[in-house]
Amino acid sequence: MTDRVLITGASGLLGRALVDVFLAEGFFVLGQYHKHKPGECANCTWLAADFSTSAGISRFLLENETLFKDCPYLVNNYGPITYKKTGKLSGQDFTLDFFHNVVTAVDITRFFLDRGGLKSVVNLGFEFAGKIKAYKQILAYAAAKNALLLVTRSYEQEFPGTRFAMVNPGTLVGAKIKSPGGISQEPVQLAHVILDTLLGRIREG
After folding, report:
1. What is the full DSSP assignment across 88-99?
2. For position 205, what pLDDT does the model report?
3. Tell me, what's the pLDDT at 30?
4. How far is CA 184 from CA 21, 35, 126, 144, 187, in A?
5. What pLDDT, on the 0 to 100 scale, is given for residue 179?
6. Alpha helices by DSSP H, the chain
């Protein structure tokens, strides 16, 4: 039977590359998108979802429960960024970034874990995950991604039957927001790294 993978944020710059790479590897792809449904393709089912509320996440999971039944792989790629000067950030900005980047990934992952059969999960971090530094424009996003790193490491210990990893990309070629002084990566190159990490062909670090 063809392995299935759920990829969240599958309609974005990296998401589209992930879909292509996983399809080329022989996977059946379940691709989550929000507003703009990509074009139809063989061995891929597009799933609409609004992850801005807990109700939206629950609706997505319950409506597609049958599709997820035999889906042992998960890529938590969804996670919008708040790009705002640090001095202008409010608590609400932190709440939103935490919800989108941590709560969504946790709720989806736990749904899969609770039903058994989940082999491997890759969470998407960012270039400086795990590093303590000051941020001028993406502090709320950085705080959320570092929290997701803690979740990833903790789940790795708590659920030894499932492989957990985080991949920390640099700035994607073609991205609207660029990291000053950071590394640059082609989306398809990063997609291959995520695929290999999910399948245990390469290890983090």
Report:
1. G--HHHHHHHHI
2. 46
3. 98
4. 19, 27, 12, 22, 10
5. 64
6. 13-24, 54-63, 65-68, 91-98, 104-114, 139-158, 187-198
Closest CA to 57 of 123, 107, 117: 107
- Looking at the chain, how many residues does it have? 205
Q: Which amino acid is at 107?
A: D
Closest CA to 74 of 153, 165, 204, 135: 165
Give the tokens for residue 57.
């996440």
- Predicted pLDDT at 188: 92
Q: What is the pLDDT of residue 185?
A: 85
CA distances from 162 to 64, 117, 165, 175 (A): 22, 9, 10, 32
Q: Within the chain, which residues score under 50 in pLDDT?
A: 205
Q: For 6, list phi and psi in degrees, rounded to 5.
A: -95, 125
Annotated domain spans of the chain: 4-198
Q: Tell me, rounded to whole angstroms, the distance of Cα 169 from its chain centroid.
A: 11
Following CA atoms 180, 165, 94, 81 in sequence, which dihedral angle do they give, to the nearest 10 degrees?
50
**Fold topology of 4-198:** Rossmann fold (3.40.50)
Contacts with 138 (C-beta within 8 Å, 6 or more apart), sequence order: 81, 82, 83, 126
